[in-house]
Fold these 2 entries.
Entry 1:
Amino acid sequence: MTEVRTTCPYCGVGCGVIAKPAASGGWSVHGDPSHPANLGRLCSKGSALAETLGLEDRLLTPRVGGAPTGWNAALDLVASRFRDAIDQHGPDSVGFYVSGQLLTEDYYVANKLMKGFIGSANIDTNSRLCMSSSVAGHKRAFGTDTVPGQYMDLEEADLVVLVGSNLAWCHPVLYQRIVAAKKARPFMKVVNIDPRRTATCDIADLHLQIAPAGDVALFNGLLAWIAEKGAVDAAYVARHVEGFEVALSAARSEDLSVTGLPPQLLREFFDLWVRTEKTVTVFSQGVNQSSSGTDKVNAILNCHLATGRIGRPGMGPFSVTGQPNAMGGREVGGLANMLACHLDLENSEHRAAVRDFWNAPAIPSVPGLKAVDMFRAAGEGGIKALWIIHTNPAVSMPEADAVCTAIEACEFVVVSDVTAATDTARRADVVLPAMAWGEKDGTVTNSERCISRQRPFATAPDGPRADWRILCDVAGRLGWAAQFDYDGPAEIFREYAALSGIAGRFGRDFDISGLVDLSTAEYDALAPTVWPLTTVRAGGRFFADGGFFTESGRGQMLPLKRRGPAADTTAAFPFRFNTGRVRDHWHTMTRTAKSPRLSQHMGEPYLEIHPEDAAVLGLQPATIAEVTSPLGRALLRVVTTDRVRPGEVFAPMHWTSESASQARIDALVPSEVDPISGQPESKAAAVSVAPFSAAWYGFAVAGGEIRPRTAYWAKARTKTGWRAELADAAVPQDWEQFARDLFDRSDADAVSVIDAHRGVARVALLDSGRVVATLYAAPDPVAVARAHITGRIGESDAGTVLAGRPGADRPDPGATVCACFDVGVNTILSAIRTGGLTSVEEIGAVLQAGTSCGSCRPELAALLANAAAPRAAE
Ligand SMILES: Nc1nc2c(c(=O)[nH]1)N[C@H]1C(S)=C(S)[C@@H](COP(=O)(O)OP(=O)(O)OC[C@H]3O[C@@H](n4cnc5c(=O)[nH]c(N)nc54)[C@H](O)[C@@H]3O)O[C@H]1N2
Ligand SMILES: Nc1nc2c(c(=O)[nH]1)N[C@H]1C(S)=C(S)[C@@H](COP(=O)(O)OP(=O)(O)OC[C@H]3O[C@@H](n4cnc5c(=O)[nH]c(N)nc54)[C@H](O)[C@@H]3O)O[C@H]1N2
Ligand code: SF4
Ligand SMILES: [Mo]
């Protein structure tokens, strides 16, 4: 096999990648220069894809009750348990909880099975936690869920406003495109609206460090300013918009002090917006994941509708999607309140058309249970059989401990995953092995409505099946073999394109009927294609000339009023708990944690807290914080930083029970949802923070497994094995015995340096004279050269390994900053100092750091600006 063009399985930028067999065996993965999303660029996660293809941790056979089972027996069991529940309790007693990472073909089949044949709308997806406020906001304003613009608008804009989006880390290639555009057009301005000072601020001309949930007030203030300054596009409003007056009058009565922003900064932003016609407003989870998320979306859309800045080059609101197929899932109707192809569940003509097309018995007329309600029903017995596909709700749902209990309490839970080592799969009755990226075959749609192929390049191991096939296997056993008899994804795609043509005839925007006659060979070769694609239209923007999909054909402006987060902070829970992502990990880490490079950027779960708050609480940097909400508890490494505002703390969402002792942060987050979208408020729980009283801290490295049982631990992969951070309230009696247990090496020789008086212990375990594991423990957070130690496994001189510090001849690179070239923080700092480097380009010229994917360039800039940038580990 030569090279295969496919699409990155991570974020919604949807970059094209080229996979080639590597000379050393395995695969190499590079950016596809011909893909319109990235033109050859990749971020750190995309560049490390080849390191995540290994079979360790892969699930290869179905498991029933934990025991390996043949496919037929497992599928028979799944079908009979679903059939029993449907027969005894009706179709609404079963549910599917699926994912914006499913391919369109998988998603289409899941939706068809549940809504068309089982006859319930109980299919919801993790996109409920992600995009549903944008979906609801778009539908309220446009009458349809459509992103009006294209990526090139971000480059053509004179002003890019980022709201609740850490684009530098979460959509890195789009961010790099803006960086390049700004360099080429220096008058271009960027404004970042985020309560945190994130890496994205690196390119921001203005940072509005807004109070949590201040966004509706801010955009109401902007709307009032637009009107006051005569910036309303009266012709556009007169012809294409409804609701202007009521929206404006609500906006005028807003209290802007709730934004927490000084009046002159507000004015600077408002003036910039008003005088810059070519403005794009990009928004993401700081907007969507809120109990007023849908209103936040509409507050932004109001400003674009009032100024007619929509659907024209360099202008428009731009909701960026998170998952690779978040957009595709919305197109197929993967949410419990949608039908398919942007058709409406509540519309009887739409239902009849879809029913006839599918040759289905009945289509439900009422929406199904949304994610939070679905898990509640599973816990309370309303859902008797639940199938979870391609998502890890025991970690990612709010009230995650209650979700775990609900999965355990539900009579029958099936999980389809590539691994059984997840908090969700461990609790399931049946786990079915799915094919992974590189093996599976289908399409995804990115943030700009561009449909791209995910093509297989690696041979799938024996056992796993494609998600669509597993669904069809069960559908056949439920009695619908003929309607689910597909010979491959191309056939599913053609059926889907045909259904979209029917939607098009109803006047819906999602119409790809131009692809209905694709042969399988043409499907295989399909180039990236922006929808709509019909006989009369190919791609492009929406709404420059009106043409909204509302009943009146006009865009709707809405009267809005700011609401605060649902959970109030109190004396007992005084901090706002903001949550989100880090640069090099993907969600619950089942794939990115396989890459040692990606695992080194942020090696453990952490809590960002303002130094003033930390001082009041007596929290020292790098100690462990105990974070508590009325629902749960987490132990996180303390990072004191003024990147967060006083009174607010931030933690990443990625750590699970597989990777840390107690860092599933969604255990702390209440299930408060937006009343319109049902999207949970993932970024504004009320918590308390206290020091965890650790008697000792430790750092451990091993060539093999590490099995910590300490109160605090967090594990990460290294090139040779594992590393772990540890802390506990009780000091072990015998450090050598402790180390043997920790590393599961009862027979290994130990060399130790123990200073009982100072409480310092260093133990190396040896096998045939070579160091196989080392442990460093101290009463304070251990200050050893972690990257150095990690590279010493396999050496014979235990004494120098135990020193924990490199000799002068062997500098310690420090924690990884540039994942592409594996360049550590100390290497960069020393090059800055010794080489007198003053720019990111100079660092690149000397060390290569920042010259490949560019994801670390904001951090390089920060290191230049401040040699002592705070980090989680090191
Ligand atoms: N590296 C990486 N990239 C990813 C992912 C990943 O797991 N890792 N996941 C992908 C997915 S599925 C998604 S949805 C996207 C998410 O992409 P983003 O939305 O950019 O990511 P988050 O870090 O969740 O949140 C963005 C910011 O919202 C801010 N915020 C919190 N509350 C408020 C508020 O009230 N108002 C405003 N204005 N801002 C607020 C937070 O401080 C945070 O910096 O990322 C995608 N890309
Ligand atoms: N507090 C807080 N919580 C959040 C968020 C937040 O910002 N803050 N963000 C929310 C958002 S936006 C999102 S999108 C969710 C994401 O949360 P999840 O969807 O729960 O996270 P993932 O780790 O992406 O889960 C994907 C699962 O699918 C498995 N998998 C991988 N490939 C395949 C495949 O081909 N087939 C199958 N069947 N399985 C596969 C993986 O091993 C993994 O177990 O988290 C949400 N939760
Ligand atoms: S920006 Fe990175 S994670 Fe997102 S699609 Fe591109 S390479 Fe993948
Ligand atoms: Mo997401």
Entry 2:
Amino acid sequence: MKKHNFSAGPCILPQSVFEKASQAVLNFNELNLSILEISHRSKPFVAVMERAQELALEHLGLQNKGYKALFLQGGASMEFLMVAYNLLETKAGYYNTGTWSDKAIKEAKLFGEVEILASSKEANFNYIPKNVTISSGLDYVHCTSNNTIFGTQMNEFPETDCPLICDMSSDIFSRVLDFSKFDLIYAGAQKNMGPAGTTLVVVKEEILGKVTRQIPSMLDYKVHISKDSMFNTPAVFPIYVSMLTMEWLKEQGGVAAIEKINNKKAEILYTEIDRNPLFNGFVANKEDRSKMNATFVLTNDALKETFDTMCAKAGINGLNGHRSVGGYRASMYNALSVESVQVLVDVMKELEKVA
Ligand SMILES: *Cc1c(COP(=O)(O)O)cnc(C)c1O
């Protein structure tokens, strides 16, 4: 039996995507060739790339608005430095809301001045700072929409008179937002879009080409745009699987339809965390709770072995919290079913009975 996979990333993808991807490894598009052995410049793969770019913009409602979708390599971590390389001339403003923001800040400091606009570091990132004042004269503002490790999620984004950049690695395509507020969005594929190996970058072209430094070709967004994400050999298979996942999302009714299911999953789990005396949520304010990654701890550590054994028996995978938080983290990305969340909640209820 397939496990209930709550892994934070790489994460669960739809079963139908695994099946189609497997078939394409054996015989892609009835070509009698594997997707793994065809040229990235071949017509069938160029069509995959174009479709993936089109679907990404469509899911974000950003077609014909001056944005380009790129599929790059190096993970979201590469974007930490590429963003600064391409956009930081003097000073940028950063929200520090988690480990990934912290890492983005560290990279940006190599290229210019960084102003921390808001931070929850002093509270081990257990909340989202509000009412943040945005200074003027910044080259851009950078934030992280969902803090994968700590389980917090931003619901309000700042108004800025400079480009707004967002790391959406762990909640891309999970909810409807006015994405045109953002000038550059990036997301490592392996959290909610596909397998590890490619990173989606959606960028408004007009913000590029303004810094005075020289940019190496592989790190220059303009170069990747001019070559349609084929400046060098792209991650053919991860892009193909990402395309399949975006097709699947479209068949489900798109981001608005999946958001309803994501809301339901989050409600089922958080209701149990709040009700069950054996569990506590990690996040300080309910309104900051992530609908993708729910973090929680046992109120009595002595029950850990029992709970872990019960989870394993129920076929639950990937529930361990990140080492910087401890406890548990249930990642409920798009492909995770409501039934899987119900299985977890049933185990939590069962623990109460046996404890
Ligand atoms: C996982 C994650 C990253 C790092 O992604 P890589 O692709 O491993 O570099 C960055 N930001 C967020 C929000 C993440 O969840």
